[in-house]
Design a protein that fits this description.
alpha/beta; globular; four-stranded antiparallel β-sheet
């Protein structure tokens, strides 16, 4: 049975501040959703809301038909929802191996560790290095790998390419694409590189001031330069290969 994550008329924010309004969409395992929008549009807040890190004002978040709107963040993670935050949040004073072990809540799974090291060979090479001894790209790989240790059915990535050199960006995106195919994880990708999002995604949501202004096919959005310019401020994107 294919697992599904569903948001229905979700409004959320921080304290008295409302950031998201009336957000509705669903994501099935194996699907790829790209989340676009200008800075401050609510992209990070949307991912945080799914993880239970904001104040839910109204609406529902359902996982396989079960309302998870009010359950704790760690229970959402155990239910199969994983978030790789923009801040990465690895432990600088722990080794790569120890960082990965920190995500385990059950017995170690050698198959998962093996898969993580296949995706990111650099991490295997630097397994004994501390977090603060890794390059920015390696820290991002570790942040993704640590989330994969929890065996998510849904993976949310908040600007995983930020600050990375072009070659490293390609390496990270290749690994993300491979893990979606090989693990059938449903993925939400937030990224400033619009061409990367459009190439990766099946569907795209564009947020404007905390509301969805576009929801549809990534292939169709590629052809709509006027919409991209209006909602994101881009006059040109890389042409599809």
């Amino acid at each position: 049975m294919t697992s599904q994550l569903e948001l229905t008329k979700v409004s959320a924010g921080y304290g008295e501040t409302v950031v998201l309004e009336d957000i509705s969409f669903s994501l099935k395992q194996g699907e790829r959703i790209g989340l676009l929008g200008r800075n401050g549009a609510g992209k990070t807040t949307l991912l945080a809301t799914i993880m239970g890190l904001t104040r839910l004002i109204s609406g529902e978040i359902r996982h396989d038909g079960r309302d998870i709107s009010k359950i704790a963040t760690y229970l959402r993670a155990r239910a199969g929802i994983g978030l790789v935050p923009q801040t990465r949040d690895i432990f600088p004073s722990l080794t790569v191996t120890e960082n990965l072990r920190s995500a385990e809540w059950d017995k170690p799974d050698p198959k998962t560790i093996s898969f993580v090291y296949e995706l990111f060979p650099r991490l295997k090479e630097r397994a004994r290095n501390f977090g603060n001894q890794l390059s920015g790209g390696e820290q991002q790989m570790l942040a993704i790998a640590r989330t994969l240790i929890t065996k998510p059915r849904f993976l949310m990535l908040d600007e995983p390419l930020e600050g990375l050199a072009p070659q490293v960006r390609e390496e990270v995106m290749a690994a993300i694409s491979r893990l979606v195919v090989e693990t059938n994880v449903g993925c939400i990708l937030v990224e400033q590189h619009v061409d990367v999002v459009l190439d990766f995604s099946d569907r795209v949501l564009i947020l404007e001031r905390g509301a969805v202004s576009y929801s549809g096919s990534a292939a169709e959005l590629k052809q709509d330069a006027a919409l991209l310019d209006r909602t994101i401020g881009l006059q040109k994107i890389n042409a599809p290969a």
